[in-house]
């Protein structure tokens, strides 16, 4: 992530000076937005820009900029693109406003599913969901007579067969890059085991059998991966798939489209989607959403314009034109074969990512602490104990625990 | 020079140094002894997030910061003494590992792991940079005048490359089936994974650092070579001194002040090694002290950052550099006094 941050330091800016007929109204108030830079955001902000006077900033560094930018008075941006975790700092610092009035006035087309409510107030409007689920090479599994794995034991058995057959470089891929990615992998596994991360007093609760089981599964998977797994992020796994080097991986739904991109992929049409493998309690995955928030430190007039513009960006036309760019929550979306995995994962009961302030610290501690177990420097119980200790130090410093 | 003129010349630079160096330093020093925290309250919140077709609503207890009437987070700052330093150094774990004599255990504590790598990285690359620099300088100096310009230009190129970009290029050349890994695999007829263990990554980092910095040393030494006393060299030749003896007894002593200068600069730069960690994304295996500071400071997705520990870690890095420089500065000071 950090590497990408540096490379993408340049901000792509879409100037909204052209007023096109596609927007239902002509916007006269200056509106600025700051969001992540992936495909779905590009589609949405392009549509917003059609209303005029919209400056959309698509920036991979958004999560580091948003809290400060929205806390300023007046806020530097009107619209923020957030995910469940990145909404937390904006929410807790009170720099985003409740949207109930605006939804009542302009949000007729929103489905109830899109309204993110906190304490009875609508605080964000979601546009898409994302989760990690199983992607696999249908041709390889068929050739070897392997059924689509539904649990991690089956994944490992399948990996062993694929390895024995020697048809790809590595049977498995994984987003195991130290830091955020590796933390997320553990969180998926641990949620699948039915574990909870933090108790009511913000104390960590991961050093238990479920945690050890999760770590052991992660380690078992690495035996079938490229030995450089600790530097492999989503883009790297996506490329491994595209170049035909791996047969299976638990990868983000938002990366699914790239498998059939003829310009990049050598395996067009061969990669199929399935639910994330089951843990003991739930699929080993977590559900994320992306959506918009409106700043509180702006005038009501600006907020109204910003919300209307955002609704234009998230309407049916946009979804129809970009159907495969994401798993949309917006009306008019027709789930294609690429969305099958994400949908199946959710239907089997995958948990939402448990975003909160303390969870942010937990995610960082996990991301930094797990590699010592995978490299063999520590055993599972020690690694978990050390992660808990690192969490406690950081939580104490931020005042969450005494 | 009149004091007024002196002040007019020096004033702007002193002012800028105060603003950009002294005040930030004081602020970091202060923050490393203090802790600024929001005041939290615990509330019950029902949060609804999208599922498929229906929403998932959960009721949970959350700890959120209190806001004042302007919507700002209320914070309080407390003096905590050396607590942040203790949190960085983790001395109890350090002593436990030392008393067991368990080196591998010591290497799982972030600060000590980072210190081990940083020191090794600095001390191993130092002689290599000075040696390679001297070698390049001698080559340039002995090249015929016609090609000297192009040779200087080419040998300076690595130093011109932006550090992070340079580190990334090396990363891509060796990562996975990168060009050079593929070549090495063909040459040794073995399947190699250079990013799968710490020592190969460290080796690549050192190689990168020497490649990047040696031209800087070379250009300094090349400048120094222009002032070597030609008479001494000629008389040495007449006395039958070999090339090696001339180098050891005349050229190197003449360049000594420059060698010390390059050493000081290199120690200061290297102890702050950072681009390598980021460029090679090696944090799973190897971290440096500067990276540790950065990791404390960078906010997680929920916006938490450890400013106090980052400050303490930054102060410790500064102390480390100071300790490394003491012998060299002492020597320079002695020489300086000797000449007067």
Sum up the structure in keywords.
heterodimer; A: 402 residues; alpha/beta; D-Maltodextrin-Binding Protein, domain 2; 2 domains; 9-stranded mixed sheet; 4-stranded mixed sheet; 41% helix; globular; disordered N terminus; B: 340 residues; mainly alpha; MetI-like fold; two-stranded antiparallel ribbon; two-stranded antiparallel sheet; 14 helices
Q: Which oligomeric state applies?
A: heterodimer
Q: What's the CATH topology label of the domain at 103-338 in chain B?
A: MetI-like fold
Individual helix count of chain B: 14
For the secondary structure, the number of strands of chain B is 4
Q: Which structural class should the secondary elements of chain B be placed in?
A: mainly alpha
Portion in beta strands of chain B: 5-15%
Main beta sheet of chain A: strand number and arrangement?
A: 9 strands, mixed
Can you write the helix and strand succession of chain A as a string? Answer: HEEHEHEHHEEEHHEHHHEHEEHHEHEHHH
Major sheet attributes of chain B? 2 strands, antiparallel
Question: What's the helix count of chain A?
Answer: 17
CATH class of the domain at 103-338 in chain B: Mainly Alpha
Helical residues, percent of chain B: 55-70%
CATH architecture of the domain at 103-338 in chain B: Orthogonal Bundle
Morphology call of chain A: globular
Cα(first) to Cα(last) distance of chain A is 32 Å
Keywords (chain B): Cell membrane, Membrane, Sugar transport, Transmembrane, Transmembrane helix, Transport
Membrane topology (chain B): Multi-pass membrane protein
Transmembrane segments (chain B): 7-30, 117-140, 152-174, 210-228, 249-268, 310-329
Organism (chain B): Sulfitobacter mediterraneus
